[in-house]
Every structure is written in structure tokens, then in C-alpha cells.
Amino acid sequence: MSLNLYNTMTRQKEEFQPRKKDHVSMYVCGPTTYNYFHVGNARMLVVFDMVRRYFLYKGYAVQFVQNFTDVDDKIIQRAQESAEEAQALGQRFIDEYFKDAQALNIMPASVHPKATEHIPEMIEIIQGLIGKGMAYQVDGDVYYEVGKFASYGKLSGRKPEDLQTRARVESDERKRSPLDFALWKKAKPGEPFWDSPWGQGRPGWHIECSAMSLKYLGPGFDIHGGGADLVFPHHENEIAQTEGYLEGQTCACYWMHNAFLTVEQEKMSKSAGNFFTVREILESFPGEVIRFYLLGTHYRSPLDFGREKLEMAQRGLRRLRTSLQLANEVLRQGVGAAEELTAQSQKLIEEAQKARKDFAEAMDDDFNSALAYAALFNLAKVINAAVNGEPQATTGLQTACETLRELGSVLGFDLEKSVSPEEDDAQRSLVDDVMGVLLQVRVKIRENKDWALADQIRDSLKDIGILLEDTPQGVRWKMK
Ligand code: AMP
Ligand code: ZN
Questions:
Q1: In angstroms, how far is the first alpha carbon of the chain from the final one?
Q2: Measured in angstroms, how far is the CA atom of residue 221 from the centroid of ligand 2?
Q3: Which stretches of the chain score pLDDT less than 50?
Q4: Residue 391 has what pLDDT?
Q5: Which ligand 1 atom is at minimum distance from the Cα of 257?
């Protein structure tokens, strides 16, 4: 079945046609490493991990490149504040990245290039651009001359004339146009620097992604991804650099951008200070719950952050796991029972096939993971009904469970994992609280001498396995 994805470049969904049959090459702009990554960054990371996993499920080999921006104004500033070397600070947060990424079940990229290890490649492209008359040097800085790239603005849909009016306000007089951007920055005292044909300095941000995507994926690779904030200027500039340098060849064929994770409708960001790191959230919720929450909304729709949303995700994930757990118990009891393909079994197999089809249709339609969840929940419902009904359907139940497990794993979830002890604790304390309320109500009922209703509560609880005991301290409850 064909897969359609929304291409920011053409502003429409397009059928995915790989550059090389059965292969997908992807480049995703990774984090700037001066802090733990926040839940907004995690949305981008989890979304592209899901995209990658779905391609793998469809049988593609995926070459997945995700960089680390480990040289940047903010890293330098943070390092100066903490009297640490900028590169050491960058490396420290790269190490921390892998811990949190693992907790979210994000696969390591095929390559994780670091900007600081690709300075010669960047210098080569900058030299090429100067040679073609598309960049110029001023006093140790090098700028890209935007006016020389005819299709500048094609990704973001912005017109250079409009941009120019806005950019003029804060423009640097040494630039030929306010839109021109830095490819190389002369070193200021105390900053990290590298030698270059223009003196000691460091690269601008945009050039690193041109250099690293070209090095690892070559021209015209399949998919370039990142958060929506990168469309302009980062990706627009990357296209100008790469395509200016390659003269006529394409940088990437499809551009995918995830919408923002927001806090009270504002983008979550380090600079706004309204962020929660994944490390913090992991103290209250397991990584898979955070992941489940992040994929519960289509990647191009905004997603608001909140504790209650994480709790909802926790309950959703728990529902899927509980279905499998209960079905496994039934299957264990039925082991060895020879079974012909009963009508119930046949029906379950058909339901499993339907879930697989619905799942694929959702994912083939621009990776609609939210709709794919619906296929999982429907299948879990079917499994529950089979478990609670007559267990005359071992083969069918087995197929349904395998399908649920497999589709869950395509989205990066291990649904077989039993509900965690922390979740069990939370559930137990909820039951405690509810029973407390019920027993207080029953005391009032007895005070009003409504013995029949009080007895009915006692009997109904007994039916579901809860026994009430009279003690000198009042009524207690226990499980049968
Ligand atoms: P940064 O570390 O800010 O350079 O961001 C790393 C990646 O996370 C980029 O691809 C950003 O577009 C993405 N990103 C940053 N903030 C958010 C957010 N609030 N929601 C979704 N993606 C984001
Ligand atoms: Zn980038």
C-alpha cells in the first residue's frame, strides 16, 4: 500500500517515492546540547522515531541521521557561567541525551554526527560558496548572500522582499543585505575556535546541517525532519546553502515538520523558560507513558502539556496491557486443548486482520498515530469480549494478541510488559480511597436504620470479592 506524507515544501500530502527502492534516507535536526532535553524536544524525537519504525515495519531499510548541535552561542554562554569547557559541557549533555532517549524507547540513530567533529566539511562548503560568488567575507566573518539564491523562501513560503523589510531593523551594516546570514563567525575572546581560511572562528548554526546531511546521505536524500520552528530560517537557509553549493541538485525530497508541544497554548521552549525536562517528568511517569501521550495526537496538530494528559495516557496504555495480560491467563489455562477453528476463533482472526488494515491505513495517511491508537483500542475491546465470553477461541485469541503486540511495537511500545508495580500501587491507593468513601456512606445509611440498603452494599461487595468485617474500631474491608 502506498504511503502519503505531508511535504512542507509543496504544502500537500504526496505519495512517498524513495530515492532508492526499499531504502529511506532521513536527516533530523537534533538538540542543542546545553541542557537535558525537554518534553517539546521529546515530541520531535518520538515523532521521527515513530516515522522511522513505521518505514521499518513496511520493509524499508532506513538510514537515519540525527545531529547534535554541540557548538552554539547558548552552549558557550552556559559553559562560561559554569566555568566549564564548552565542548565538555556539550558532551555531558550528549551522554544525558542517550539516557532519556532510552527511557522513551527512541532508537539510536544510524549516525549521530556532532557539529564540532565536522568543521573541515563545513569549511569546504563555505569555500565552495565563496568560489561561486554566493558568499562573502567581511573581517573574519563569512556571510551567505541570500540574493544570489533565486528560490530563497520556497520552503517557508516567505518572500525575500517581505523578509527584507522586517530584517532591516536589526541589520548589521557589514552585510550586503539584511537577509544575509552567517556561515562563519570570527572568534570573540574566550570563545572556542577553529582555524579556517578566514582566521580563527566557529561555524554558524545552519551550515552544520548542510555539511552533515551531505556527508552521510548525499544530495537529494529522502526526508528532512524537525520541529515547525525550524522551517524558517534554519531549513530555508540549509536549502540555500546545499542547493547553492550543489548547483541545481536538490537538498532533500520531502520536508516533514512536527507541530509544537505547548504549555497553555505557548510553545514549550528553553528560552521562554516554560519547559519541563523529560528527566523531571520521568520522576512521576514511566518513559513509555510519556511516549504514549506524545503519539496520541497527530504530529502536525498542536499538543498541550499537562499532568492530567499524562495520567490519561497512563490509563490508556494500562488498558491495552491489561487486555493482553488477561488474555494470556486464559491462553495459559487452555494450553494443550486441541482446538478446531471455531467460528469465534475465525471471527477473532478477522478482527485482527481488520485492526492491522485500519492501523496501516491510519499510518499510511501521513503517519496518523492517533488514529492508529483507535485500531489498537478496538482490538483490545475484541480481546476483552473474547476473554469474558466463552473461551472457545484459543487460536483466534492468540492471533489477536500477537497482532496487538506487534502493532504496539511498531509504535515503540512493549505491550506485553506487565502493568508496572508503581501503576499497581497507584491503582491500589485509588481502591483504598473509594472504599473509604463507600464505608462512610454505609455508616450513615445504618445510622438512618436503612438496614436493607446497608446489607445490599455488603452483599454486592461480596459478589465482587470484597468482604466487610465488623471490628471494635468500625467496619474494615479485605479482599476474599
Ligand atoms: P533545540 O534544542 O531547541 O534546537 O530543538 C531541538 C529540536 O526540538 C528541533 O527539531 C526543534 O524544532 C524541536 N522542538 C523544540 N521545541 C519544541 C516544541 N515545543 N514542540 C515540538 N518540537 C520542538
Ligand atoms: Zn538542522
A1: 52
A2: 14
A3: none
A4: 58
A5: 12
Q: Omega of the bond prior to 160 within 30 degrees of 0, cis?
A: no
Q: Is 101 in the pocket of ligand 1 (CB under 6 A)?
A: no
Comparing C-alpha atoms, which of 204, 203, 221 is closest to residue 213?
Answer: 221
Asked if residue 304 has its Cβ within 6 Å of ligand 1, the reply is no
Q: Give the closest residue (by CA) to ligand 1 atom 2.
A: 31
The residues with which 263 forms a beta bridge, in sequence order, are 266
Residue nearest to atom 8 of ligand 1 (CA): 41
The 10s digit of each residue's pLDDT in 245-283 is 999 899 999 999 999 999 999 999 988 999 999 999 999
**C-alpha 275, offset from chain centre:** 16
Please state which CATH class domain 4-138+145-159+204-294 belongs to: alpha beta
Q: How far is the CA of 29 from the centre of ligand 1 (A)?
A: 9
Q: What pLDDT does 231 receive? A: 98
How far, in Å, is the centroid of ligand 2 from the Cα of 48? 14
306-410 — its CATH code?
1.20.120.640
Kindly list the domain boundaries of the chain, sorted by start residue. 4-138+145-159+204-294, 306-410, 421-479
Report the nearest-CA residue for atom 14 of ligand 1: 41
CA separation, residue 380 to residues 3, 53, 142, 177, 224 (Å): 26, 22, 59, 60, 35
Centre of ligand 2 to C-alpha 257, Å, is 12
CA angle 243, 244, 245 (to 5 degrees): 90
CB 314 within 8 Å of CB 430? no
CA–CA gap between residue 279 and residue 430 (Å, rounded): 26
Residue 235, C-beta contacts closer than 8 angstroms, at least 6 positions apart: 29, 155, 156, 224, 226, 255
Distance CA(387)–CA(371), nearest Å, equals 25
CB–CB of 269/275 below 8 Å? yes
- Sheet containing 221-227: which strands, arranged edge to edge? 61-66, 23-28, 221-227, 252-258
